Design the sequence.
């Protein structure tokens, strides 16, 4: 990156789709971001533009800048709820979740060798907890909140596997399997709590 982006380019960066980083803007704005190393033009039709890793970092920096009455929607960075966080509800949250899931499907289409959107992609394999949580939240399932029952997605010592706890294990399993995850049910040897073990399907 040789120069900081213009105000118009910053707005394009802020408006990038969650997860996939797909950009919308004028040809001049997108070309300018490419020259600055903040975006790239995908070689496959329809040749959309996407944020580079430097562009994603730039969006996070923009989101950390102080603004009046900041909100999660203004931060510019979508984070799937894994259960246990402060509750985020309302129409804006539903729109963000929907947009993030559509962006993830597009990322699958672009990065899976066969363009298969039914199978998790590399991003999900390196963000297991967030990937599984996004699939659950996008299906309209409720994450656990303060004192509320709901799903909880947690990392495990096993490679490429997350644990999912909550009161509706069969429903969670169905959603994750439909999203391309392999799921099995287990019992914790200490607490005797039932949970799911989920891994991204490779085929």
Sequence:
């Amino acid at each position: 990156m040789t120069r900081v982006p213009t105000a118009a380019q910053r707005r394009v960066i802020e408006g990038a789709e969650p997860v996939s980083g797909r950009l919308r803007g004028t040809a001049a704005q997108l070309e300018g971001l490419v020259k600055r190393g903040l975006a790239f033009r995908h070689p496959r039709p329809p040749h959309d533009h996407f944020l580079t890793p430097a562009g994603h970092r730039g969006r996070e920096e923009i989101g950390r800048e102080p603004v009046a009455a900041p909100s999660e929607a203004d931060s510019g960075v979508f984070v799937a709820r894994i259960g246990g966080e402060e509750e985020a509800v309302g129409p804006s949250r539903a729109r963000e979740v929907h947009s993030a899931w559509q962006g993830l499907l597009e990322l699958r289409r672009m990065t899976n060798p066969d363009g298969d959107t039914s199978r998790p992609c590399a991003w999900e394999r390196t963000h297991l907890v967030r990937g599984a949580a996004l699939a659950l939240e996008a299906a309209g399932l409720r994450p656990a909140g303060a004192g509320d029952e709901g799903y909880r997605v947690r990392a495990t010592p096993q490679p490429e596997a997350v644990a999912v706890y909550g009161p509706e294990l069969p429903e969670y399993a169905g959603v994750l399997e439909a999203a391309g995850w392999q799921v099995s049910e287990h019992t914790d040897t200490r607490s005797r709590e039932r949970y799911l073990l989920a891994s991204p399907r490779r085929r």
